[in-house]
# Entry
Amino acid sequence: MTAPASFDLAGRVALVTGGNRGIGRGIALGFAQAGAAVAIFGRSVERNARVLAELQATGARALALAVDVTDRAGLEPAFRRVEAELGPVDILVNNAGIANLSGGILQETAESWDTVIETQLNAVFLLSKLAAASMAVTPFDERTSGLTAVE
Ligand SMILES: NC(=O)c1ccc[n+]([C@@H]2O[C@H](COP(=O)([O-])OP(=O)(O)OC[C@H]3O[C@@H](n4cnc5c(N)ncnc54)[C@H](OP(=O)(O)O)[C@@H]3O)[C@@H](O)[C@H]2O)c1
# Structure
């Protein structure tokens, strides 16, 4: 699918968490086709490398970082690397998410609940704070988008 001409992101920098498969991959590729430089975060080095190649094949500047968004200490260094290599972040898509299909509350554990909250809420908050600071330095009118859901 190609981006419509009116959807022009030339000169913009986008960060898509969970960009190495599924919905995040589709968003990352759409942004790249629309002219943005695109960074993706994901844990799988192999999937990251595959999508990085796809992003670069569009002609976009791109970066794929092995980031676990539940590792709070790793978020700021990774975000700074995106800024250093691609420029100030204009667009953040908090897409990384997990669905724990345990069969219901009786099977659910506190540990898996914590992982969902860390992935789908806490990382979204922390990355949004970093991106908001970056955007305040370089204003742009269409900014943070959240896709995540707690399931
Ligand atoms: N598909 C649906 O019908 C649906 C419905 C409602 C909401 N959503 C939400 O939409 C988003 C994308 O859905 P999807 O179906 O495309 O999901 P998916 O195919 O399971 O992909 C999830 C992505 O998130 C990444 N991810 C997961 N945990 C991560 C972590 N701790 N750190 C970094 N990256 C992590 C995964 O990469 P790695 O495994 O390599 O880390 C992968 O790239 C999710 O937030 C999901 O909750 C989806």
